[in-house]
Amino acid sequence: MNRRGSDCKATEAKLVVSGKMGVGKSALVVRYLTKRFIWEYDPTLESTYRHQITIEDDVINMEILDTAGQLGEDSTNQWEGHVRWGDGFLLVYSVDDRESFENIAQLKNFLDDIKKPRNVSMVMMANKTDLERERIVSTEEGEKLAQDLACAYYEGSALLGDGVISEALEELCREVRRRKMMEGKQRRRSSSQQVKQVFNRVLTKIYS
User: Fold this and answer.
1) Which of 14, 100, 157, 183 could, after both became Cys, cross-link 20 (CB 3.0–4.6 A)?
2) Facing residues of 59 across strands?
3) Mean pLDDT, residues 145-160 taken together
């Protein structure tokens, strides 16, 4: 499952897969990691997986948290812990379940409350496109919500195993990498400014 990367320092990406119970979160993650589809999952279990990929010659060490259940009064503290832990978030709904679609905006609001909007790296994923006859949420609705939430949008099927799952998770890794690079530049700039301030104070004392 893991690939040997180069000698350069890898980017750590902690990814949280969230969504209403039954939308196929576990099926998506397992399909991505093993290329297999498993029909039955225990919805009360949470699992964490490690995986390594290379994007644009950069090694990414992924840690994927497949969350159990859904956001609610009884699970708020647990979800807050997940949000604080995560670097990026894959929010999943099922095209045959409108409530799961409407739950995405609630999840995004929760992320914003904990992480603040500018710190949220997020991708939206519509699952179960193989159920076209049972489809309730259109592609256009999904695209419109993603536009409103300012995030990338993908739709696919864990059952069919199309390449969209890989595209969605790897785009999320790119978002995490970009944000970490920006934060690193800001920290270096801040550190440089602090050094200059200390140096100027020393010079002021010397010549005063």
Assistant:
1) 100
2) 54
3) 96
| pLDDT number for residue 196 | 58
Using alpha carbons only, what angle is made at residue 90 by residues 155 and 131, rounded to the nearest 5 degrees?
Answer: 30
Write down the pTM of the prediction: 0.82
Strand ordering across the sheet containing 152-155 = 47-55, 58-66, 11-19, 88-94, 121-127, 152-155
Residue whose structure tokens are 């699992």: 47
pLDDT higher than 90, residue 18: yes
Residue 58 dihedral angles phi and psi, to the nearest 5°? -105, 135
Break the chain down into helix, strand, coil percent, rounded to 5: 50, 20, 30
Q: How far apart are CA 20 and CA 23, in angstroms?
A: 6
Nearest to 79 by CA among 58, 109, 42: 109
> CB-based contacts of 98: which residues, under 8 Å, 6+ apart?
136, 137
For the stretch 137-155, what's the b/e string if a residue is b when 16 or more beta carbons lie within 10 angstroms of its beta carbon? beeeebeebbeebebbbbb
Closest CA to 15 of 29, 35, 34, 1: 29
DSSP-derived 3-state class of residue 103 = helix
